[in-house]
Target: Deoxyribose-phosphate aldolase
Amino acid sequence: MNVAKYIDHTILKPTTLVSDIEKLCSEAKEYGFAAVCVPPPFVKKAKELLQGTPVKTATVIGFPFGYSAIEAKLAEVVLALVDGADELDIVLNLIALKNNDWQYLANEINHLLPVIKEKGKVIKVIIESGVLTDDEIIRCCELYGAAGIDYLKTSTGYAEKGASVHAVQLFKKHLPPQVQIKASGGIRDYAFAKELINAGATRLGCSAGVAIVKGEQGTGSY
Model:
C-alpha cells in the first residue's frame, strides 16, 4: 500500500524541542511521508530542514481547543503563511458548535479560508469527531464541504476519543468528492491505519508514523 505517502508525521506537544523537529523532519525525508505537522513556532525551522524535498510543512491553528477568537486565528494563519506553511490544520470553534451557533462557524471559515486560498495553500478543518454526534458530523460535512476546504480532519488527538472508522465513513458519505479526509488521533499501528485508508482517509495524522511504516514492512504487503 505504501502507507508512508498518506502520513502527516506529527509532533504537537507543548514541550517540543528543536531536536525533536530535526528528528521529525529527518524521518519524514527518510520514509517519504506526505508532510510534517509541527507547532506554529517551528514552521520556519521545519521549512528550512525540508527545503528541496517533496515533504510539505503543516501546522495547526487554534490548537487544540478551537475556541480562540476569529481574529486570533486569523493572526495565526497570517503568521504561519509568512513562515512558509504549506498546509494549515484549523480547529473549529467547538463551543459554537455545541451551542448550535452554525452562523458563527460559517463566519469563521469565511474569514479564514480566503486568506489561505489566496496564497495557494491547503486548508484542513479539525472537527473533533470523537465528541460529536453523527448529526453534528453530518452538518460539519455540509458546512465545510460547501465552503470549499481541502480536507476535513477527525481529531486533534487531545479529546478522549480520536479517529474512528465510523467517523471516516460518515465523512466519505456526506462530503463532496473533492474534499479529502484526514484521520488523526490514536493511530498507532499499521492495521488501524489501513482500516482508516480503506474507509476513505487520504491522510493520516500520527506521531507513530515510523512504527506504522515498519508495521507495514513487517506484513510483507509492499
